[in-house]
Backbone:
């Protein structure tokens, strides 16, 4: 038989649950406030003591209310934080299982796709998904099987909250490790984020792809177009992370395609025809020029990292393409970075020096050698035409 003390504890629990069931949403909001304040960071034994060995009953009530109201609840963030107290409780694995049994993962993922929910609510959903992923490989697989990668990638690309984006990136990185069945799916999901309009999302995604690269092995060809595309970004952090990822990708099979793509970016469609880009129906020429400048900088960085890469670039006619970029009088950054990279090839490979000298002529070549970082500032349209039309015949 239960003792008088135990009976009293059970009675208090039943009164509390009845109070919850009969309360309107304002009263429930106050109950959640008190619960969060009193029970944050408690362990499973402490929660059971608080609820007279019936903490699971309150969790079940919270989960039921979440399932019924997550599409319109006005205190969704408090509700999710309250559930998080159970999921994060030390020794509280059974709470996690109980939450999953009512379809918790699917609900959390659906919240991320609701356009009218607050960013704060969606961030709390991501935090709960992180707690689930932290429980082990089979829980990571459960999230991925529930189309979690697509939902998280979309939220990362569209969120307006830097904090929420960082939490989402951490979760995607977690799903990409110790999860061999779905790590390639995570990698491809991240690639799909790169064309988005959020510089912060691009930066975080590039960093995560770099960290994941050793885990996934060979990168899919889809990464080539996506990474080259972000070089249009005017944000230095995005450009920096792109360079770091490209360095890592040089050790993989996509290297030739990436190098060919970089060389192609040095010569936009109108660069060798002296036509107005607008006349060719090309949109956003300034972004293309930004991409050209980034490519000019990166080929120099990659060449300095590896003599083998430098020689491959030379065979891809990078020298001529750099000279074309130097002649872009409409974009100083392209001229500067192309000139600096060209200087490296000239100084490192004697046969390149001779070919460039023959193409430029003695006077223009001497100007370049005297001051490679500034010679383009004195360039006139005639000089630019010489650079664009020069023939650099390197065997």
Residues:
């Amino acid at each position: 038989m239960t003792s008088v003390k135990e009976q009293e504890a059970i009675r208090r629990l039943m009164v509390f649950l009845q109070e919850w069931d009969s309360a309107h949403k304002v009263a429930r909001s106050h109950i959640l406030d008190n619960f969060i304040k009193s029970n944050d960071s408690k362990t499973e034994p402490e929660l059971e003591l608080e609820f007279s060995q019936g903490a699971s009953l309150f969790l079940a009530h919270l989960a039921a209310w979440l399932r019924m109201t997550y599409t319109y609840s006005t205190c969704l963030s408090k509700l999710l934080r309250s559930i998080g107290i159970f999921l994060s409780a030390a020794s509280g694995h059974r709470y996690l299982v109980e939450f999953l049994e009512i379809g918790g993962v699917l609900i959390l993922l659906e919240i991320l796709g609701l356009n009218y929910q607050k960013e704060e609510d969606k961030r709390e959903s991501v935090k709960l998904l992180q707690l689930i992923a932290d429980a082990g490989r089979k829980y990571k697989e459960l999230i991925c099987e529930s189309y979690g990668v697509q939902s998280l990638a979309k939220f990362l690309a569209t969120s307006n909250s830097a904090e929420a984006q960082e939490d989402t990136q951490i979760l995607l990185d977690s799903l990409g490790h110790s999860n061999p069945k779905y790590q390639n799916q995570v990698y491809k999901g991240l690639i799909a984020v790169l064309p988005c309009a959020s510089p912060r999302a691009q930066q975080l995604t590039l960093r995560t792809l770099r960290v994941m690269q050793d885990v996934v092995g060979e990168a899919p060809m889809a990464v080539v177009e996506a990474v080259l595309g972000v070089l249009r970004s005017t944000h230095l952090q995005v450009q920096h992370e792109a360079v770091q990822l490209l360095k890592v990708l040089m050790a993989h099979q996509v290297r030739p395609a990436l190098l060919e793509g970089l060389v192609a970016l040095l010569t936009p469609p109108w660069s060798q025809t002296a036509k107005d880009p607008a006349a060719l129906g090309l949109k956003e020429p300034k972004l293309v020029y930004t991409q050209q400048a980034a490519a000019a900088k990166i080929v120099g960085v990659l060449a300095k990292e590896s003599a083998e890469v430098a020689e491959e670039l030379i065979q891809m006619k990078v020298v001529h393409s750099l000279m074309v970029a130097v002649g872009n009088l409409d974009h100083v950054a392209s001229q500067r970075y192309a000139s600096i990279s060209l200087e490296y090839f000239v100084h490192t490979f004697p046969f390149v020096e001779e070919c460039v000298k023959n193409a430029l002529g003695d006077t223009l070549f001497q100007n370049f050698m005297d001051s490679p970082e500034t010679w383009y500032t004195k360039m006139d349209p005639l000089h630019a035409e010489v650079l664009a039309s020069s023939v650099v015949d390197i065997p």
